[in-house]
Amino acid sequence: MLTIAISKGRILKDALPLLAEAGIEPSEDLGKTRKLIVSSKKGDVNLVIIRATDVPTFVEYGAADVGISGKDVLVEHNSDSLYEMLDLQLAKCRLMTAVIKGCELPAGKIRVATKYVSLARQYFAKKGRQVEIIKLYGSMELAPIVGLADCIVDLVDTGSTLEANNMEPQDLIMQISSRLVVNKASMKMKHEEIKELVKQLQVAVDKRC
Ligand code: PRT
Ligand code: MG
C-alpha cells in the first residue's frame, strides 16, 4: 500500500489525468467528497488531500510515502530529508517580482510582500538589495496598492491577476513545475512499488512532451 499526498487545487486537477495513466484512479469524485483520505479503485494506493504547503511535511515525516508538490513549495520548505524523483511538468508557472505598472523600486531598502519569505530573501540578497520582507498568506497583489509594500514576489501564470490589479511582472526568480517527492525510508522499505510508480509516471510525462 502506497500513500500519496497531494493538494486539492490546481495540482490535483493537473495530476489526476497523469495518475490515471499510471493506473491510479480515486474511488470517489474528489471534487465532491469531503473525505481527506480516498483510496484508489484498485485499492493499492491511498490519496491524502492536504494543503499545498503541507505536502513536503507529510512526506518528510513519512505520513505519506510520496507527494506531488510545486517546486516553489519545495524550495521554500528547504528539506534535505526527501528525494525529488521526477519533474511532472504540471502546474507550470514562474516565480517573479512584480510592481505597480510604471513604478520603479526605491533606491534604498525595499519592502517586499510575499508568502515565499526565504526565496525572496535569497533572491534580493544575491542582488545586493536591502529588503524588509512582509509575510502574507494570500492576495499579495493588494500589498503595493494599499502601500504595504513596494513590490511583491509571487507566482505568475497568465499574468491576468497582475493585470487586473494594475501591476506588471518584473524579474524572473525561478521557473516552477510540480515534482514527485519520496520519503527516504519509504524509498528503502517500498522500493519496488515506488520504482514502478516513478517508471509509469515518467512514461506518462514523456508521452506529453
Ligand atoms: O489553498 P492553498 O494555499 O493551500 O494552496 P493552493 O490552492 O494555491 O494550492 P494548489 O493545489 O492550487 O497548488 C498551488 C501550486 O500550484 C503552487 O505551489 C504552484 O506550484 C502551482 N501553481 C501554478 C500556482 C499557479 N500556477 C498560480 N498561478 N499557484 C498559484 N497561482 C496563483 C498565483 O499565486 C496568483 O495569485 O494564481 C495567480 C496568478 O495566476 P495568473 O494566471 O493570473 O498569472
Ligand atoms: Mg487553494
Please name the defining characteristics of this protein.
209 residues, alpha/beta, D-Maltodextrin-Binding Protein, domain 2, 2 domains, six-stranded mixed β-sheet, five-stranded mixed β-sheet, 8 helices, 33% helix, binds phosphoribosyl ATP, binds magnesium ion
Explain this structure to me?
About 35% of the residues lie in helices and about 30% in strands. With about 210 residues, it is an alpha/beta fold. It has two domains: about 1-90 and about 175-209, 3-Layer(aba) Sandwich (D-Maltodextrin-Binding Protein, domain 2), CATH 3.40.190.10; about 95-175, D-Maltodextrin-Binding Protein, domain 2. Strands 2-3-1-4-11-5 form a six-stranded mixed β-sheet. A five-stranded mixed β-sheet has the order 8-7-9-6-10. The protein is elongated. The model has no long low-confidence stretch (mean pLDDT about 95). The structure holds phosphoribosyl ATP and magnesium ion. Phosphoribosyl ATP binds next to helix 1, helix 3, strand 9 and helix 6.
